[in-house]
Amino acid sequence: MSEENTPPAEWGPMRSFGRIKSRKLKPQQASLFDTLLPRIEANDAHVAAALASGRDLWLEIGFGGGEHLAAQAARNPAVTLIGCEPFLNGVGSALRHIADGDLKNVLILPGDARPLLDKLPEASLSRIFILFADPWPKARHNKRRFIQPETIAAFARALKPGGTVRFATDWADYADWALERFLASPDFTWPAQSQSDWNTAPADHVTTRYETKGLGDCKPVFFDFVRK
Predict the structure, then answer these.
(1) Residue 182 near residue 130 (C-beta atoms within 8 A)
(2) Residues with Cβ < 8 Å from 33, sequence gap 6 or more?
(3) Distance from the CA of 174 to the CA of which of 129, 135, 162, 184 falls in 20 to 30 A?
(4) Residues 131, 212 contacting (CB under 8 angstroms)
C-alpha cells in the first residue's frame, strides 16, 4: 500500500452518523445488552480468538437493524462476522436477531469501526460490507461520509489480497463519490463489465426493510471492489 494512503494513527471524532439513540429500547433488547452483548462484544479478547481460529473474518460497518448481518451469519456458519454500529437501537435489534437465530459466529461492536480496523492485523479480513450508509447529501456535509481516502486506505490494510469491499447506496451522488475514490486508490480494482454488474443486487445480497423503503434518489447500486 502506498504511503499516501496510510490511515492516520488516530482518528478524529466520528461524524458519519446522526444520532446514537432515538426511542427507548424494548425490554427484550435492553436485557440482551446485559446478557448477550458481553459474550459477543468485539473486544480485544474476542477478536483475538476469532483471528486465532483460522476462520474467514468478515466485517459489516453500519449494520442498521442487523438483518443483513444475521442473515449472512446464518448462511455462512464457517465464517465469523464482526458488525459495527454506533446507533444503539440498531445494536438492540441486531442482538435480537442473533438471539432468535441462536447464532454463534457473530461479534458486535457498538461504536466506531475505524479503531477496530486499525487494530486488526494486516490482511486479516476477507470481506467488508458498507450498505446504505448515511449519504449526507448536502455538499457541505459530504466530509461526514464514511467513504473517504483515509477509510479506503484502512480497508486496504486490513483486507487480504483478493478480499472485497461491497458498497451499496440508493443515492446517486454518493455512488459517484464512492466510485471516484475507490478508483483513485492504488489498492483496489473494480471488475464490473456491464451495467448489470452494479444495478442488480448480487446473488448473495440480503435485502433489508430499510432498503425496501427506497429513501434515496435512485435505485440501489452495488459496487464490489477487490483488493489487489
Answers:
(1) no
(2) 25, 91, 92, 95
(3) 162
(4) no
Alpha-carbon separation of residue 197 from 31, 83, 170, 179 (angstroms):
42, 26, 15, 14
- How, if at all, do strands 79-84 and 56-61 pair? parallel
* Distance (Å, whole) CA 91 – CA 98: 10
Residue 204: CB atoms within 10 Å: 11
Residues with a catalytic annotation lie at 134
Rounded-to-integer distance, Cα 64 and Cα 74, Å: 17
Which DSSP symbol is given to 203? T
Mean pLDDT of the chain: 91
Strands annotated E in 140-220: 159-169, 188-189
Q: Give per-residue pLDDT as tens, 124-138.
A: 999 999 999 999 999
**What pTM was computed for the model?**
0.90
51 within 8 A of 121, measured Cβ to Cβ:
yes
